[in-house]
Write a structure and sequence with these properties.
Keywords: Membrane, Transmembrane, Transmembrane helix
Structural class: alpha+beta
Largest sheet: 4 strands, mixed
Helix content: 55-70%
Strand order of the largest sheet: 1-5-8-7
Number of helices: 38
Number of strands: 10
Distance between the termini: 116 Å
Shape: elongated
């Protein structure tokens, strides 16, 4: 029979890094090896981590070992705010001729990067692997049969012995050590001998436990012997000794508890004490023990008074976290297993000191967690009201606070929970730091909703329990930890702005930080800026300064959003045009904002339909003379006016000439900017070409440069064929270019494929008809196109209104079989 071994792996707390090592193996660099049975348990722990993590065992690639199951739990150290993490694994070895390797490490690959891995080599015990070398299969079979028969006989004899022994114990009360009251009680319960005998017989036949412990003969023997124990202290001591190293699962512990609960010789209080022994074992999470206690309570095997007493003792001795106690109390109250009197008595006895009012908070948080379950809402409201009454009673408070909670069914439950929490803080039963620590930890475990967290934060701010800087910092912490969504973050960040004392600049800066870190989207940033218009303390200069700082950091919003934002502001505040322009100029002079932002502020006025740009332009021109804005910014403003169709082509050209008169204008630097606007369709193709013509008029560029820029714009598809021809003819009409340069330019467009032959022929004939060129100039041009593209009379006839048929005789077309 294979034996079962238990191997412990512990951790070494290194100041630089938490190290998982093997207990008793010395330095972590040494290889640890154990001789073990074919079946066993192995435990691993990682202490003092933050936050809690899950450990796991990994087996080697060898098929000779399997991990059948694992138990995990984490204990929180409230004094250090750290966690102790445990895992217990059961292994099975099928081969005896190789050394098995098991490794323990954090289950998460990301966390495992920061921790070492504990490795242990398991060497199967040679004595368990020995097999007979000689003898036939018949001999082996016979030996097995003999062993089975012996086991059966021994079991029957043992059962008979214990039945007789139990009978003697009942007939001889003096030998058992029980007092008379216990005997009378036992006799009353077993008044029917036949029934008693039948029950005992069935009980003896039933297996005491299921699972690995059921196969452990030594433990089964201890359980049978425990029936002779008659004192709670003896049972508790027995249980502590017998299972402290067996690492039982929750199901096995429940089976043990059920076994003891069927015994008439142990009291309810004794049974809870026995379970408390199990609860205090390091291998068992505290909540598992409480679950077992409550399950027995549900089966009416123990009393509520015993459960509450054990909960109070466990909590006050720091063996059970207050959060666990609160969760258990609340959930079982909802299930009608406890009364408000039970809960009140438990809290009052266990947490009577003012500084220990934390359980009230925990119960409120559990209520908030469960409130969405509609079937429990009535019970939760009932418990909530009882807690409010208890809080007021403890403080002998007769004020108006919380009076609005009388109609709780009709109000926001989450807001009600927050109001009571603020009441606790305001009554100095709980400090803000402790409150936030509890809320953050439970929120990370998804025990507290992000909305409640932010609601409490806002209420703390409104009641002046925290400063604005902390409110914003806590919100950002929630956002980064994914406890709240980015939309909720924007909503709650804006909420304090209803207070006129709050500075908008601070909030814009915080939002820019969040945008810079990509924790909110560009759209959410724009929505936040737009929402600022709704607050009375919104000031243009304060906003512009903050916006300019964001612009310098690369935090921008779409131009359309910015214009919409500012134009809405102007409309809402009914700001006059002259006042706005004066404010913009003042901001430019005092805040030293960038030219780009200044330009945007200036262009905002163009959104107004009622604005007369003709009146606006003289103001801007005056600024230009005062050097308040650069020539480039003034030019940009002119293009913005043109883009919004606020000025005519004539005014546009006139303004261009005004700008280009300034000596400091560097057209060569300006041309790429203007062409970029044309590429982005910020200005029309006509006004783009007009800009080059005006540059030529002001002698900023020569004629050849103008034509080359036209060609470049056509090549880069900023303008179409028709526009190029139109502006080129205009140059010819105004004698900016002569006929020779004109013809050379137009032919170059055709040669480079920037215009097609049909458009070019139509263009040439239009020049001829308008008398801009004579026949002697036009015919060579048309003939060159015919020769280049081998055009026939039929092809020419398909080009509508291109060449007058009178000219056909003067042109030489290419032959066509269809011609006669």
């Amino acid at each position: 029979m294979a034996t079962s071994d238990v191997i412990h792996v512990s951790t070494v707390d290194n100041l630089l890094k938490y190290v998982v090592s093997i207990d008793g193996c010395g330095s972590v660099d040494q290889m640890c090896e154990r001789t073990t049975g074919l079946i066993g348990n192995i435990s691993c722990s990682l202490l003092n981590t933050k936050p809690g993590i899950q450990l796991t065992f990994a087996q080697s690639e060898s098929p000779s070992v399997t991990i059948s199951r694992e138990w995990h739990h984490t204990d929180e150290n409230h004094s250090t705010n750290t966690f102790d993490n445990y895992v217990i694994s059961e292994y099975h070895i099928s081969q005896c001729d190789e050394v098995i390797e098991l490794s323990c490490s954090p289950a998460s690959e990301e966390i495992a990067k920061f921790h070492s891995t504990a490795v242990i080599h398991l060497k199967p015990d040679a004595s368990e692997c020995q097999v007979p070398k000689n003898g036939s299969s018949k001999t082996v079979t016979a030996v097995v049969i003999v062993i089975i028969v012996c086991v059966i006989m021994i079991s029957v004899l043992a059962a008979t012995f214990f039945i007789k022994r139990r009978g003697r114990s009942k007939r001889e009360p003096g030998s058992s050590g029980m007092n008379m009251s216990q005997i009378e009680s036992q006799d009353t319960d077993t008044a029917d001998p036949k029934h008693n005998e039948s029950t005992n017989t069935e009980h003896e036949k039933e297996p005491l436990l299921q699972g690995p412990l059921a196969t452990d003969g030594e433990f089964q023997r201890l359980l049978i012997e425990s029936k002779d124990l008659h004192k709670d202290t003896e049972v508790r001591e027995f249980l502590g000794k017998s299972i402290s190293n067996l690492n039982p699962s929750k199901e096995e512990l429940l089976a043990i508890a059920n076994f003891f609960s069927t015994s008439k010789w142990i009291s309810h209080e004794g049974l809870v004490a026995v379970l408390q022994t199990v609860l205090e074992m390091k291998q068992i999470p505290s909540k598992v023990g409480l679950d077992i206690v409550m399950e027995l309570f549900n089966k009416e095997k123990i009393k509520a008074e015993d459960v509450l007493k054990r909960l109070r003792v466990a909590t006050t001795e720091n063996k059970v976290p207050p959060a666990t106690t609160a969760e258990m109390l609340t959930k079982y109250y909802v299930l009608n297993l406890l009364t408000t009197k039970d809960i009140d008595k438990s809290i009052h006895m266990g947490f009577s000191k003012p500084k220990e009012k934390v359980p009230f908070l925990y119960i409120l948080l559990v209520i908030e967690e469960l409130h969405s379950e509609s079937e429990n809402r009535e019970k939760l409201i009932e418990l909530f009201n009882a807690i409010v009454a208890k809080l007021k009673s403890d403080l002998e408070y007769n004020g108006e606070a919380l009076s609005e909670l009388k109609d709780l069914e009709e109000m926001d439950f989450r807001k009600a929970i927050s109001s009571v929490i603020i009441f606790i803080v305001d009554s100095r039963m709980l400090d803000v730091d402790t409150l936030m620590d509890i809320l953050q930890k439970r929120s990370l475990k998804e025990k507290v909703s992000g909305t409640l967290l932010t609601t409490v934060l806002f209420d703390l701010l409104q009641n002046e329990k925290i400063e604005l800087y902390r409110y914003i910092a806590e919100l950002k912490t929630c956002l980064v930890a994914h406890q709240i969504s980015s939309s909720d973050f924007v909503q709650f960040l804006s909420a304090p702005l209803n207070d006129e004392k709050v500075c908008i600049h601070d909030f814009i800066t915080e939002m820019q930080d969040c945008r810079h870190q990509n924790v909110i989207t560009k759209e959410q940033y724009a929505i936040f800026l737009s929402s600022l218009l709704n607050y009375k303390q919104f000031k243009l200069d304060e906003f512009v300064k903050a916006y300019d700082e964001g612009w310098k950091r690369g935090i921008k919003i779409d131009e359309a959003n910015f214009r919409s934002l500012m134009s809405n502001f102007l409309r809402q505040r009914k700001v006059k045009l002259e006042d706005y322009l004066a404010e913009v100029k003042k901001i430019k002079d005092e805040c030293q904002i960038t030219d780009e932002v200044f330009e945007k502020l200036l262009s905002v006025v163009l959104e107004y339909e009622e604005i007369n740009v003709q009146e606006l332009i003289p103001v801007v021109k005056a600024w230009r003379k005062e050097a308040s804005i650069s020539s480039e910014r003034f030019l940009s403003f002119i293009f913005e006016c043109a883009k919004c169709d606020k000025i005519t082509d004539h005014v546009f050209e006139k303004l261009l000439s005004v700008v280009l008169e300034y000596e400091e204008i560097n057209v060569q630097e300006l041309i790429p900017v203007v062409k970029a606007w044309g590429k982005e369709a910020s200005i029309s193709s006509e006004r783009l070409l007009s800009f080059f013509i005006e540059c030529g008029k002001c002698d900023k560029i020569n004629t050849q440069n103008i034509l080359e820029e036209f060609k470049t714009c056509r090549r880069e598809d900023f303008v179409n064929e028709e526009t190029v021809f139109k502006f080129t003819i205009d140059l010819l009409k105004k004698d900016v270019v002569d006929k020779e340069a004109f013809c050379t330019f137009t032919m170059s467009l055709l040669k480079e494929g920037l215009v097609d032959k049909e458009s070019f022929l139509t263009f040439t004939m239009s020049l001829l008809k308008e008398g801009l060129i004579d026949e002697s100039t036009a015919l060579p041009i048309i003939q060159s196109v015919i020769d280049k593209y081998k055009i026939t009379k039929k092809d020419m006839a398909n080009i509508k209104d291109v060449v007058d048929k009178k000219l056909y005789k003067k042109l030489q077309f290419h032959s066509d079989k269809g011609d006669k």
